[in-house]
Design a protein that fits this description.
The protein is built from seven helices and six strands, in the order βααβαβαβααββα. Helices cover 40% and strands 14% of the residues. It has helices at residues 20-25, 31-52, 71-94, 113-123, 139-155, 166-170, 218-229, and strands at residues 12-16, 56-63, 98-102, 130-137, 183-186, 205-208. A six-stranded parallel β-sheet has the order 3-4-2-1-5-6, sandwiched between helices. It has one domain: Decaprenyl diphosphate synthase-like (Undecaprenyl pyrophosphate synthetase, 3-Layer(aba) Sandwich). Helix 3 packs parallel to helix 4 (113-123). The protein is of the alpha/beta class and 245 residues long. Bound molecules: 3-methylbut-3-enyl trihydrogen diphosphate (2 copies) and magnesium ion. One 3-methylbut-3-enyl trihydrogen diphosphate (IPE) is lined by residues 16-18, 60-63, 66, 190, 192, 194.
Length: 245
C-alpha cells in the first residue's frame, strides 16, 4: 500500500454520506439510482476501514429529518437498508465485523427493527472493525433521550442531580462504549453537520470533500486519511511544538 500505513490512522472515522441524489441527477438518472450506487460505496468504505486499521467506522445512513422526504424516496432508502443487511450480514460477520446501530427505535416499522437487532446480535462477539450505522438518527434526539433516562433515574431515586455530569450523560448516549470520532468526513461539498454526532464530535477533525457519496472511492478515502494524518489536535491545549521543557 502507500505511506498511510506508517502514519497515524484515526481510531474512529464517521462519515456523512451525502450527495446520492445529485450524483444521479447529474447523470439524468432518478435519485433512487444514486442511493443504490451509494451502497457500493458503503461496501468499499468498509473494506478500506478494515484494510487501514480504522477501528470504528460510523456511517450516517438516514437522519431523523429524512422522514420529511417524499414517501417513495423514504421507501427506497428503507428497502436498501433491508437489502443491505440481508445480503451483506453473512459476509460482514465472516470478516469479523461488529455491527452497532445508533438512532431512535421507537418509531421504526415492524419489518426493520428485527433486522437491525439481528445484525447486532449476530456480530456482537466479533473483534474486528466496528461498523456503526446511524439510522433514524438525530443528535438532538439522542441527547434528549439520554437526558430523559437520567431524569428517570433521578425520579426513581437511584441518581442524585449533582451526579449528572458530562460522563454520566455520555454513558446514556446510543454510542455508549464507542470512542468519540477522530475524523468526521462529509461528502458532496456541503459544509454542515446536519444533526450528526453533535456531542461526540466535540473535538473531531472535520473534513469536507467535494465528491458525491457514490464517488467516494478507495483513493478518496486514502486522501482523507492522509489529510487527517497531517492535522494537529490540541484539545484546548497548545501546540506540541510550543511546549518547552
Ligand atoms: C445522501 O444523499 C443519502 C441520504 C441523506 C439518505 P442525498 O439523498 O442527501 O443526496 P443529495 O444531497 O440530495 O444530493
Ligand atoms: C445528512 O444529509 C443525512 C445523511 C447523510 C443520512 P442530508 O442530505 O439529509 O442533509 P441536509 O438536509 O442537506 O442538511
Ligand atoms: Mg443530501
Amino acid at each position: 500500500m502507500n505511506k498511510i500505513e506508517t502514519v497515524k490512522i484515526p481510531r474512529h472515522v464517521a462519515i456523512i454520506m451525502d450527495g446520492n441524489g445529485r450524483w444521479a441527477q447529474s447523470r439524468g438518472l432518478p435519485r433512487a439510482m444514486g442511493h443504490r450506487k451509494g451502497v457500493e460505496a458503503v461496501r468499499e468504505a468498509v473494506r478500506v476501514a478494515g484494510d487501514t486499521g480504522v477501528g470504528f467506522l460510523t456511517l450516517f445512513a438516514f437522519s431523523s429529518e429524512n422522514w420529511t422526504r417524499p414517501e417513495t424516496e423514504v421507501n427506497d432508502l428503507m428497502g436498501l437498508l433491508k437489502a443491505f443487511i440481508r445480503r451483506d450480514l453473512a459476509e460482514l460477520h465472516g470478516e469479523n465485523v461488529r455491527i452497532r446501530i445508533i438512532g431512535a427505535r421507537d418509531n421504526l416499522r415492524g419489518d426493520i427493527l428485527p433486522l437491525l437487532i439481528e445484525a447486532e446480535e449476530t456480530t456482537k462477539a466479533n473483534t474486528g472493525l466496528t461498523l456503526v450505522i446511524a439510522f433514524n438518527y438525530g443528535a438532538r434526539d439522542e441527547i434528549a433521550r439520554a437526558a430523559r433516562k437520567l431524569a428517570e433515574q433521578v425520579a426513581a431515586g437511584v441518581l442524585r442531580p449533582d451526579q449528572i455530569d458530562a460522563v454520566a450523560l455520555d454513558a446514556q448516549l446510543d454510542t455508549q462504549g464507542i470512542p468519540d470520532p477522530d475524523l468526521v468526513i462529509r461528502t458532496s461539498g456541503e459544509e454542515r453537520l446536519s444533526n450528526f454526532l453533535l456531542w461526540q464530535a466535540a473535538y473531531a477533525e472535520l473534513l469536507f470533500v467535494p465528491e458525491y457519496w457514490p464517488d467516494f472511492t478507495r483513493d478518496v478515502f486514502y486522501r482523507a486519511l492522509a489529510v487527517y494524518a497531517g492535522r494537529e489536535r490540541r484539545y484546548g491545549g497548545i501546540a506540541a511544538a510550543a511546549v518547552t521543557g
